[in-house]
Amino acid sequence: MSWLSKLNPRHTGSKASRATGQPTPVTADPETCLMVFKNHWAQVSRILERRDPRTADDGSAVRNYADQMMYLLVEERPREDTGIGPILEMVMLEDVLDQLLRWHLRGQLDDDKKIEQLKLFDLLVSQSQQPLLRHKPVLNPLMRLLAVCVEPRSPALESSLVLLLNQVCVSLSTEPSILELFFHAQTDQGPANLLIFSILIPFIHREGPIGQQARDALLLIMAISAENTTVGRYIANNSYFCPVLATGLSALYSSLPRKIEVRGDDWHALRREDWMGVSSITMFMNSLEFCNAVIQVAHPLVRNQLVEYVHNGFLVPVMGPALHKVRQRPLPPEVGLTLRL
């Protein structure tokens, strides 16, 4: 599948497929849903305002009420006159998401609780019937949560984190204008800049679904920022995206197999079905194809820098000497393999 075909993304999975274990879609009238939401928030607020030590029952109650509140929010449709629904309006006025997150942060936010919060925001971003990320009372708590999930990370936390960031980038691709808001959002450590981008960079060369989701998300950011000089300059001058991508090719190249089983005497080139089962070749090809896709769609500042890094950090010091060895002895297996690719 071409990387460029992923620039018209669809939300991963339908509501039905992602809603396993969730309450059935809300069918009540908007006034009833708003009343239920207000009642739930009143119960949660009483717990959040307490100064005495929290109990396990407090945590369970907040989690259950918050889950039901978020399901009501994602099922709500915007009003024609204001462009937002009454539940979302209340979430913004009461700063519901920020209060919930700050309450969790005051306690012991272990990986399991972080994953719960990431899944909550994943639900909001991927399932909402109305745009949410354009609103600071949604965006700022999201960025604050991402900032506390950066390090250290367990495999389960990494999976939830990258999935959420992938969904955020899909949402951004449908509303590119809000990308600028991510520069002005705040975390407890200060301005977020392009935090979603920085978190994804270490997963560029990761194997498996988590690496694929990260590359898909990064490619969407590249395409979105193609006409945005502020973002393009930030990626080129204030991130390690280009050097990580280019130098990673060298590391993956060195891991290519020394030999590969051929199908017969007339075999002369690798086809996709030949290398899909070899993890080292698959990882190298994924990164190489991703690099090519980025060069095609990225901002000129990023594109030019990446070409320079690939030339000076991979082609000249790695591929060049290997190809020159042809004159002294038979072609090294990994070079022949690359040429056939």
Detail the topology: elements first, then pairings:
Blueprint: H1 15-18, H2 30-49, H3 56-75, H4 86-94, H5 96-106, H6 111-127, H7 136-148, H8 155-174, H9 181-184, E1 186-187, E2 190-191, H10 195-200, H11 209-224, H12 229-238, H13 241-254, H14 272-275, H15 279-297, H16 300-324, H17 333-340
Antiparallel strand pairs: 1-2
Helix pairs in contact: 2-3, 3-6, 5-7, 6-8, 8-11, 11-15, 12-16, 13-15, 13-16, 15-16
Explain what this protein looks like in three dimensions.
By secondary structure, the protein is mainly alpha-helical. Strands 1-2 form a two-stranded antiparallel sheet. It is elongated, with a radius of gyration of 24 Å. The relative contact order is 0.08. It has 17 helices and two strands.
Q: What is this structure, in a nutshell?
A:
A hairpin with a 2-residue loop joins strand 1 (186-187) and strand 2 (190-191). Helix 13 (241-254) packs antiparallel against helix 15 (279-297) and helix 13 (241-254) runs parallel beside helix 16.
Q: Give the overall shape.
A: elongated
Number of strand segments: 2
Give me the secondary-structure category: mainly alpha
User: What is the string of SSEs from the N terminus onward?
Assistant: HHHHHHHHHEEHHHHHHHH
Weakly predicted, low-confidence segments: 10-21
Characterize the biggest β-sheet. 2 strands, antiparallel
Q: What is the terminal separation in angstroms?
A: 16 Å
* Rg computed from alpha carbons, rounded to a whole number of angstroms: 24 Å
How are the strands ordered across the major sheet? 1-2
* Secondary structure: helix percent: 55-70%
Give the overall pLDDT as a whole number: 84
- Work out the helix count: 17
How large a portion of the residues is in β-strands, by DSSP E?
under 5%
